[in-house]
Amino acid sequence: IATAKQILVQKIREAEHERIYNEFIDKVGTIVSGVVQQIDKGNVIVNLGRGEGIMPPREQIPREKFRQGDRIRAFIADVQMTPRGPQILLSRNSNDFLRGLFALEVPEVYERIIEIKAIAREPGERAKVAVYSSDDRIDPVGACVGIKGVRVQSIVRELNNERIDIVPYTSNPELFVTRALAPAKVVTIDVYEPEQMMTVVVEDEKLSLAIGRNGQNARLASKLTGWKVNIVSESDYDEYKKREAEMLAPVGRLEGVGEKLTERLMAADINTVQRLSKTPLDVLTKIEGLGPKTAEALIERATAMVNQIEEEYKRKVEERKAAEAAAKEEKIKAEDIFASDADLAEDEAGEATEAEPADEPDAGDNNESDVEASEKEHTAES
After folding, report:
1. What is the pLDDT along the chain (382 residues), one digit of tens a residue?
2. In the CATH scheme, what is the homologous superfamily, with its name and number, of domain 2-56+71-91?
3. Cβ(81)–Cβ(72) under 8 Å?
4. H or E element that contains 176
5. Of 167, 74, 188, 57, nearest to 121 (Cα)?
6. Which residue of 52, 117, 236, 337 pairs with 169 in a disulfide if CB–CB is 3.0 to 4.6 A?
7. List of residues 6+ apart from 314 with CB closer than 8 A
8. Hey, which CATH number is domain 248-324, 2.40.50.140, 1.10.150.20, 1.10.10.60, 3.40.50.300?
């Protein structure tokens, strides 16, 4: 009887596990609400009603603290069947959790009138969200922010005061990167299509704003747009361009590159040896007449030539610096000599000034001489 009872209990438990699994497997990718039941070794156990979810530390927002009885919302990332029953994995730091919160707070997002194109996020710190609407009458940014920011502020509070930047999406990469770096003002952008990279130039005083604290703003903009973003100040960019102009070598100067190949490379926007050295192999092989071996040999020769040019440039810079330092030292020596001569002249003038009073007769001596001369004159008259 005891064995039969044990088997019956086991069957009931398995049926319950199966029912919970089937209920929550359909909820994967949605946001659920629950109550914190306990915290075990950093894992937050959440009572979801008919099941229990677990949120490991890696799925939590950094520096976020929970207490037993707190009501929280979380994203169901996965449901797995284990020997101990279904395990419901919860997350609050995934991009999908943020996407789901926008769907809950912004009706236009839920109804897909507004589409969230991309999300870049550093949980608990800052996030950037690119939004788009095919309806020109709707302002996607304004709709997500809400009147007086009420919609986005609700999401910010849910994410432990995580800062959220809402960016209008565009298919133009340069404009998209410019918007993603806001509020910093972009001066100009150099695009390197094959490498999916951009050099973004900002005003000198706005450089720290564009990069952000510990590079956060630039990092999130890069994640959001899918482009590698290199941010430089206007003065550094001017210096770089000056240096580049001195170092650039036409692709036709490279050994093994004839007139026809030069035309093909230039047609592919590879007009300098420097650009050729950085061009990926799969891009070069798309050019007519270039196989993998030839393309690889071209890249190697271009790289060697670039290194040689850079070494020559460094040598010239060092020579120029040495000449400037020598000229500066000569100037300092000349100034020291002039200063020594001036000091010597001042000392001599001082000594001469001190010696002059000794040659002048005393006022008393002058009076005595006058008395003697008067007496002599009086005697002569008598």
Report:
1. 677 777 777 777 778 888 888 888 989 999 999 999 999 889 999 999 888 899 999 999 998 999 999 999 999 999 988 877 888 999 999 999 999 999 999 999 999 999 999 999 999 999 999 999 999 899 999 999 999 999 999 999 999 999 999 999 999 999 999 999 988 889 999 998 878 899 999 999 999 999 998 999 999 999 999 999 999 999 999 888 887 777 778 888 888 788 888 888 888 888 888 888 888 888 888 888 888 888 888 888 888 888 888 888 788 778 877 887 887 777 776 666 655 555 555 555 555 555 454 444 444 444 444 434 444 444 333 3
2. Nucleic acid-binding proteins (2.40.50.140)
3. no
4. helix 173-180
5. 167
6. 117
7. none
8. 1.10.150.20
Q: List where CATH 1.10.150.20 sits in the chain.
A: 248-324
Q: Distances from the Cα of 92 to the Cαs of 17, 63, 68, 97, in angstroms?
A: 25, 12, 17, 6
CATH number for the domain running over 94-169: 3.30.300.20
Overall size of the chain counted in residues = 382
Range(s) of the chain covered by CATH 3.30.300.20: 94-169, 172-246
Q: Do β-strands 126-133 and 163-168 pair in parallel, antiparallel, or remain unpaired?
A: parallel
Q: What is the DSSP string of 312-368?
A: HHHHHHHHHHHHHHHHHHHHHHHHHHHHHHHHHHHHHHHHHHHHHHHHSPPHHHHHH
Q: Left if phi > 0, otherwise alpha if psi is -120 to 50, otherwise beta: which for 82?
A: beta
| Domain 172-246 sits in CATH 3.30.300.20 | yes
DSSP string covering 188-255:
EEEEETTTTEEEEEE-GGGHHHHH-GGGHHHHHHHHHHTSEEEEEEHHHHHHHHHHHHHH--BGGGST
Residue corresponding to tokens 């089937």? 22
